[in-house]
Amino acid sequence: MEAGSSLAQNISGAPPSLSTLQVPEPGNLDDFVKNKPAAIILGKALFWDEQTGGDGRVACATCHFSSGVDARTTNTVSPGPNGIFNSVPGPGATLTLADFPLAGDDIVGSQGVVRADFNGLDLANPLAIDDCTSVDDGTFFPEPRVTGRNAPSVIMAAFNRDNFWDGRAKRDFNGVTPAGPGDPSDPTVLVDDGSGLEEEEVVASPASPASQAVGPPNNAVEMSCAGRSFPELGRKLLNKTPLGLQMVAPDDSVLGALSAAPANGLTTTYAAMIQAAFHDEFHASAELTPDGFTQMEANFSLFWGLSVNLYVNTLIPDDSPFDQFREGNLGALTPNQIAGLDVFLNKGKCISCHGGPEFTRASIVNFSGGSAFANTGVTPTAADGGRQPENKGKFKTPTVRNAELTGPYFHNGRYVTLRQVVDFYNRGGDVMNADKDSRIRPLGLTAAEKNALVDFMLALTDNRVRFRMAPFDGPSLDPVNGTPIAAVGAGGAAAPITPFLNVNHFSP
Ligand code: HEC
Ligand code: HEC
Question: How far apart are CA 367 and CA 346, in angstroms?
């Protein structure tokens, strides 16, 4: 047998480099945005701004700071549907390697805010804390609440047709909510073309990351006291120095020129950033809404969604060893990684769901219904029905890019090493059920094949993600129950991001 040609045969069908794909963007973006670089600046500032949190401590980045996921280990377990902590003593516990795989129906989620009801804004509060009344919910209090699913990476979300594990953040953004044009509340934005404020239904598409981004800010688990509205969040942030509680590196790849270093924050205002990015008809009206909000406050969800979407679209990890290999640098993958690619494509059938340069067929370009969302036997459908209204325990196929750094794995965060994930597939999943995809069945992989498959997945890490180099750099962050993180500029951080709990991915 001739080694060279059989190799070529075995990896035929490998996806091309990610750099061959165009990043999806709303076809009608120009209807809203007058200056895309300005919108990206706004989006990055909003994504990282902890003042968004009702407690002045939670930004989008707080749950997505480490390779696009949450690497905190203290108070990140949700007790799951049975309401009982099976794997740790209770709220506030710190996860260790010995807790994996998690016991019972526990979930590794992300922590947001302490449960509280919103009374009103407190614009003079120097720590950006809203006026709220905390509520003992008998589960997490006085710790922050923890989400019931593991946070997927924001890196690569640009390519997803519908975001979230169940795809509920729709491809078509309605300017206000995640649910798309089908939202029964018929959301509208306010447009003033010179003759006063008019309510208008809008659609920007494809823009699932925008639909996604308007979900968390006023969500009472993730970022806000219960009952805050988007116009109120707009009023709050328009009154604040952008990133006023955080440091921005002077060489930040997007925000550097506006950095107020050595002081915190930016040398501009959110109003100025919105004016630079969006057409006047969405924010320049002199008329107030019946509730007394300015047009800029009232349309804050539109600016938030589209600008964060455009920032997320810049987070493209297309320089992994795999990409370099596919661009002709055949030495970029080791022989063992090439053997793992063969398993990924052939014996493991991983490619049928994790296909295309995105390594997921839940993407816009490579979308395939049956492979985009699948029941892979991770949990019983009764524990989490996944995609609705089907309710058959189907979850969105996540990308495998940077999986080295995005553990723990699956929607419930049950497994912590990639070898554990490979063993899961090799035994045909955990939960046998009528809705399980027929491709999830025992694979009969040898120890060497499992090892090679893990090794291949490690070749999907972009070193710029690992070292937080541009475009993956960002302001400082002070996550509750986490380690403070210094601001990082375009050149990256000295210390790399390591796998969750520093695991060895080859360990079962
Ligand atoms: C409290 C932690 C937390 C905060 C804060 C948070 N997220 Fe998330 N994020 C999650 C979790 C958990 C999920 C998965 C939820 C689900 O699928 O039901 C998620 C899902 C996502 C996804 C979907 C990725 C995919 O592949 O489906 C994106 C994109 C995202 N978040 C971006 C954001 C943005 C933008 C913000 C700020 C507006 C934000 N997140 C705030 C925890 C958080
Ligand atoms: C039938 C479609 C399908 C096939 C085949 C498949 N996967 Fe998956 N994969 C999924 C889905 C869906 C999830 C998310 C499941 C969940 O969380 O409930 C997932 C999750 C993962 C994750 C976790 C990623 C994360 O961020 O949590 C990894 C790693 C992974 N798959 C690797 C593989 C490998 C390796 C193979 C081949 C042995 C494979 N997959 C085969 C659909 C598939």
Answer: 20
pLDDT of residue 6: 67
- The CA dihedral of 370, 373, 374, 380, to the nearest 10 degrees, is -150
Per-residue pLDDT reduced to its tens digit, 415-427? 999 999 999 999 9
2 confidence band (pLDDT: 50, 70, 90) = very low
Q: State the pLDDT confidence band at 369, using cuts at 50, 70 and 90.
A: confident
Q: Calculate how far, in angstroms, residue 410's C-alpha sits from the geometric centre of ligand 2.
A: 8
Q: What is the structure's pLDDT at 425?
A: 98
Q: Are 492 and 503 in contact (CB under 8 A)?
A: no
8 A C-beta contact, residue 307 and residue 46: yes
Give burial (CB, 10 Å; 0-12/13-18/19+) of 130.
Answer: buried
- Residue with CA closest to ligand 2 atom 40: 350
How high is the pLDDT of residue 10? 79
Q: How far is CA 69 from the centre of its chain?
A: 7
Q: How far apart are CA 433 and CA 365, in angstroms?
A: 30
In contact, 74 and 91? CB cutoff 8 Å:
no
Q: Any idea what the Cα angle at residue 467 is, between residues 340 and 494, rounded to 5°?
A: 135
Residue corresponding to tokens 């997007």: 254
Compute the average pLDDT of residues 138-151. 96
In this structure, the number of other CB atoms found within 10 A of the CB of residue 196 comes to: 11
Q: Which residues line ligand 2 (CB under 6 A)?
A: 152, 348-350, 352-354, 371, 374, 376, 378, 395, 397-398, 400, 403, 406, 409-411, 418, 421-422, 425, 437, 439-440, 453
CA angle 314, 468, 113 (to 5 degrees): 85
> What is the Cβ-side half-sphere exposure of residue 265, based on CA atoms within 13 angstroms?
13
